[in-house]
Amino acid sequence: MFWNKDIETLDRKALEELQFNKLSKALRDAASTPFYKKVFSENGVSVNSITSLDHLKDLPFTTKADLRLSYPDGMVSVPRSEIVRLHASSGTTGKSTVIFYTARDIADWADLLARSMMATGATREDVLQNMMGYGLFTGGLGLHYGAERLGCMVIPSSSGNSLKQIQLMQDFHTTVIHITPSYALHLADVVAEQGIRPPDIGVRKAYLGAEPYSEETRNKIQDQWGLDAYNSYGLSEMNGPGVAFECEHRSGMHLWEDFYIMEIINPDTGERLPDGDEGELVLTHINREAMPIIRYRTRDLTRIIPGPCPCGREHRRIERIKGRTDDMLIVGGVNVFPSQIESVLMKIPEVGNNYQIVLDRKENLDRLHVRVELYSKMFQGDMEGINALKKRLVEELRALITVNPRIELLEPGSLPPSMGKAVRVIDNRKI
Questions:
Q1: What is the pTM (predicted TM-score) of this model?
Q2: What letters, b where the CB count within 10 A reaches 16 and e where it falls short, cover 170-204?
Q3: Domains in the chain, start-ordered, CATH in brackets?
Q4: What is d(CA 360, CA 364) in angstroms, rounded to the nearest whole number?
């Protein structure tokens, strides 16, 4: 099903012509802002010299640090009177990153999410329960408006209060949920504790996002809930959810190229990589009035999937995000991504839905400690089985990440549950 078939099936040549026309306007708008006016001048950039999409690579990157330096409104390209909304993301250091929207920007965002939902087979007959956070965080509102644009009934339940979430799902016959993967796993446990089989609630689809996760986690969510889980991708700097979304074929996320120009670069050198090679995703927003952003380094690792999708959409696909360049852990000189550890844990049936990675340093040596909750049946006197499972986890993790981990097996409920974005990694080496 198509929300806007003409745009979604536009051939590559016509799509690139559309991208270039939008890019030209976005560059002119950006050049009017204090931030980009200064950056373009310092780098000898003239927007008139950008005469093809390929010339985009000659422009400097924009980073999260740049957004903080331009705080509060150094990247705004319209009068304050035209701005109707701002969103902000917090950080551990420095100022927030703030994104501004005009009324048209909000309408376009809603349209893009309606497109994304219809690509998964959702219709106006669906009931969407939105368990993402509302407020300054962009996670909740984008899907909310998109679902309303599509004609769905929306339950803006936000995150947490699991028993209330279950009641709402049952009373109003929720068919689609928007949820973080970690909370989907936790909520399945709570449902089971109420004596209910999660599939009996009747949810058909789950839209997953807001945190890195493995394909094994997606599979576990599908098995526990008896639904189809769709990968989605978004980031506040590019609006929020709806930058890329899987279609019904679930063979990669279509990145909506009439809104964004994507590049994959080597995160160390900044050089562009060909389709199929894994690297850092760089995005240029070419459809936002209030705040165009040029060549934004997302820090997210993925690759462009070569070849067409069976759905007929021409917009290219990216793989589910592997992780972030700044989330990579260096343990004893070895590069380790939390998603690698998760991929091992989530494919083992005895492992529960919650885990934690703890890093320490002792006698100048890094130590990797993985704390894993098991299902309660594992603690019914079978110590031999527990010891065998611990050995298996050590061996499989060591084979994948080449680091020897310490495994701690825990009873259910031993670790703090996740109600929003999960805190999976505790690095005591930085303290």
A1: 0.85
A2: eeeebbbbbbbbbbbbbbbbbbeeeeeebeebebb
A3: 1-324 (3.40.50.12780), 329-430 (3.30.300.30)
A4: 10
